[in-house]
Design brief:
With 266 residues, the chain is mainly alpha-helical. It has one domain. 64% of the residues lie in helices and 8% in strands. It contains nine helices and seven strands. The strands form three sheets. It has a three-stranded mixed sheet with strand order 1-4-5, with no helix packed on it. Strands 2-3 form a two-stranded antiparallel sheet. Strands 6-7 form a two-stranded antiparallel ribbon. Helix 1 crosses helix 2 and helix 7 packs antiparallel against helix 8. The longest helix has 26 residues. It is globular and about 55 Å long. It starts with a strand and ends with a helix.
């Protein structure tokens, strides 16, 4: 079935100000992460953080994730735009968020917070592996509503025409990414529930997330639109995804082969 995209990026107006689905998706995602984070806080931080401190931590990770995502988007994929329009990085409602930049921004904030509080690093990244995919899923859904990040042309019976691009049916790569993040969400929560039954190892959730994301993102690259930023002729997104998968393998190797005391204590 071929569908013609005709969605409205603006969800509603407040006092003459438009509220975009893109911003709304990330806002709802942050609130859901805070709510879920409070429920799982004891498993990850024990008594090291109060519920209020967990809220502040998640909101801080979210903020720096957005900053990293926007800066990464402009540096990796829209450098030509940023070169003559520095203000573009602040126009979040226009869409565009590099997940790799977002992960880096959030990771740097978690590293700072962990060092400041003297808590184990894996406690933070494992919690993020459980909480992050839901916000990622909502964000990619909003990309579809925005009519951005469309995929490659398709000759099959399944595709979406984005009239503001051309009249060619294309793969709805945004929806494929939604499915990818749904799988990550299920993997994360499934592993978390299994670990609570007496199989807990710090770092496993982090490794599962990185490996799962890297592999699925690499596969989906086939249907993403032709990239403009290349490294040695290879798309930047593909290079970063392969590196992410490699990091995931490295983390899982450390979990199972590393020092047992460190793995046990986080």
């Amino acid at each position: 079935m071929i569908y013609v995209w005709d969605l409205e990026p603006v969800a509603f107006m407040i006092g003459g100000w438009p509220v975009h689905w893109y911003g709304l998706a990330y806002g709802v995602g942050a609130l859901l992460a805070v709510g879920l984070g409070r429920r799982v806080a004891r498993d990850f931080w024990g008594g090291g953080l109060t519920p209020k401190e967990v809220e502040d931590l998640i909101l801080g990770v979210f903020l720096w994730g957005v900053v990293g995502g926007r800066v990464g988007e402009m540096l990796l994929y829209r450098a030509d735009v940023w070169a003559h329009d520095w203000g573009a990085v602040f126009r979040i409602w226009e869409g565009g968020m590099s997940i790799h930049g977002g992960l880096l921004g959030g990771l740097l904030y978690m590293l700072w917070h962990a060092r400041r509080r003297g808590l184990g690093w894996w406690r933070y990244t494992d919690a993020a592996a459980v909480l992050l995919p839901l916000t990622m899923m909502l964000g990619r859904g909003a990309n579809y509503i925005n009519g951005e990040l469309w995929g490659m042309p398709t000759a099959g019976d399944w595709g979406v025409i984005f009239p503001h691009v051309d009249e060619v049916p294309r793969h709805p790569a945004q929806l494929y990414a939604v499915g990818k993040n749904l799988v990550l969400l299920c993997l994360g929560w499934g592993t978390y529930v299994w670990q609570k039954r007496g199989h807990w190892r710090w770092g496993r959730l982090t490794g599962v997330f990185l490996l799962g994301y890297g592999v699925m993102r690499t596969v989906l690259q086939v249907w993403f639109r032709a990239p403009t930023q290349l490294v040695g002729g290879v798309p930047v997104g593909l290079v970063l995804s392969v590196v992410t998968a490699g990091l995931g393998l490295g983390v899982l190797g450390w979990v199972y082969l590393g020092p047992k005391k460190i793995v046990a204590e986080g």
